[in-house]
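Entry under discussion copied across for reference:
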Amino acid sequence: MLALLGALAGYQFADRILASSFAPQLDQTGKVVWLLLGTVIGFAVGYIFGVLLSRYVLQGFRHMDEIMARASGAEVVVAIGGVVVGLVIATLISIALVRIPVVGPYLTIPIYLLAGYFTAYIAAKKHVEILRLLGLRGAFAVLPGLTPSKLLDSSAVVDGRILEIAGTGFLEGEILVPRFVVEELQRLADSADPEKRVRGRRGLDFVKRLQNSSGAVRIDDTDYADIEAVDSKLVRLARDVGAQILTTDHTLKKVAEIQGVKVLNVNDLANSVKPAVLPGEVIEVKILREGREQDQGVGYLDDGTMIVVEAGAMLVGSRVKAQVTSVLQSPSGKMIFSRVLP
């Protein structure tokens, strides 16, 4: 595209020179050669510039893919509105630029690109305030198919398990760490109390590791000067942006749910995925087949978890009582080892 634009610009530039008073005296053949030369030079310059620019364009597309992967629906819609506003502004500016001789029409292209980009960027960064001014705050939370953002409070950050949960990919949507939560962690890190100081520094370290491990983590600068309590600010922000709160604080969960904000408790998640049986527990299992190792039998729990029973090879088809010796959890699933009780 840039090569063709360069060729067109080179042709027009050569044509303007021929029409000027500084034009050399050329016959018809010379004029054609002059126009061809201007076109070829313009094509070459545009092509070289296009090759160099294409590398940055490809990098920009990759960066755009990362942004879209972690952007919320509200940000995308507001950013599109920002592009429209930017194009309108660029149109008004282009009315004046197009009057500039030779280069005027070509200056409108970067003006359109820059105006659309900057207005979209500003709109996306300030989408919460824009939606609030338009009276649409929280409207996108009720639209089906849109994944709400997750707001982290200080207890979830200090807990540390959120880092592993985010790494598994189970958390959908953008992860937001409010600026006032980071400031709370900073106050804890600067505290005279050694225990609070350790918790604060641990929390700040986990925030940094979250940012490095996932592109979907963003520090939200929204604050509420009329509210002092951090938990109240968190609930207010969740209501404004239609987000869910991720925490380990049981009290915060109750308060947020009363105000209609959904809360994801890390402790509830841990309880739901804990082993169904623990070492030392006695279970009743039916041995269905022999195991891989000598004298082992294999059975299954109701949820499909495999149980390896030592000294159970001779009891295939029998229901026996076995004591759990260990539970092995791996990425491929869970396996329980036990031995037959006498």
About this structure: The first strand starts at residue 150 and ends at 152. The two ends are 83 Å apart (CA to CA).
